[in-house]
Amino acid sequence: MSQELQFNFTLTTLNLSFNDIGVDGAKYISQALQSNSTLTTLDLQFTNIGADGATFISKSVQFNSTLTTFYLNGNNIGNDGAKSILQSLQ
């Protein structure tokens, strides 16, 4: 799926909420987002990504200029994950 996201030029919203993708899934999505230029909304609510997954996602936000909205509720990202996200948005 991450390869499809990487080379997809039409998808604007990706909702993976309530799927147990975990940290590994967040890592793959993060890699794909770095070269995706159409996705504007990413919903990863309750996907069990934790702080490490949030850190991966935050790194992709730095390289992705089209992603404007993402949802991370219910992932227990803690202070470290939240800090990574906030730093990527500055």
UniProtKB/TrEMBL annotation:
One example of a Gene Ontology biological process annotation: nucleocytoplasmic transport
Keywords associated with the record: GTPase activation, Leucine-rich repeat, Repeat
A Pfam family annotated for this UniProt entry: LRR_6
Gene3D superfamilies reported for this sequence: Ribonuclease Inhibitor
GO CC annotation: cytosol; nucleus; perinuclear region of cytoplasm
The keyword DNA-binding belongs to this UniProt entry's keyword annotation: no
GO molecular function, one term: GTPase activator activity
InterPro entries: Leu-rich_rpt, LRR_dom_sf, RanGap
Annotated protein name in UniProt: Uncharacterized protein
Organism listed in the record: Arcella intermedia
Taxon lineage: Eukaryota, Amoebozoa, Tubulinea, Elardia, Arcellinida
